[in-house]
From TrEMBL:
Source organism: Rhizobium hainanense
NCBIfam families given in the database record: copper_CopC
Name recorded for this polypeptide: CopC domain-containing protein
InterPro entries xref list: CopC-like, CopC/D, CopC_dom, Cu-Rt/internalin_Ig-like, Ig_E-set
Domain CopC as annotated: residue spans: 25-120
Localization: Periplasm
Amino acid sequence: MPPMTRMIFAAAAISIAFAGQAMAHAHLKSAVPMADGTVKTAPSELDLTFSEGLNLKFSGIKVTGPDKATVKTGEGMLTNSGTTLMVPVTDKLPPGKYTVEWHALSTDGHKTNGSYGFTIAP
């Protein structure tokens, strides 16, 4: 096999290996309330569904409201075979834009984080 062909095969093999590792992280698949969505009534809980199971001890969220104050939330729990993080909202939420910052540790030990927003209509 010519050296150039070997290099191409080696590069392809390395790319496939790294792609497999990237897929092993818990990525946010969906959220309720929906990311960038608008709801008419304040949610009593937030449900974040991930691409794989989570370690609850090292996963969570922080919610900030229109005034940038932190929203009080209850103890999170896992549902849906451990892929959905459900967090009760204990504060009354007035209309406005909210930001959800999340961090997750998948059951295979990979950490991910991100954020999204939603709006409560007046």
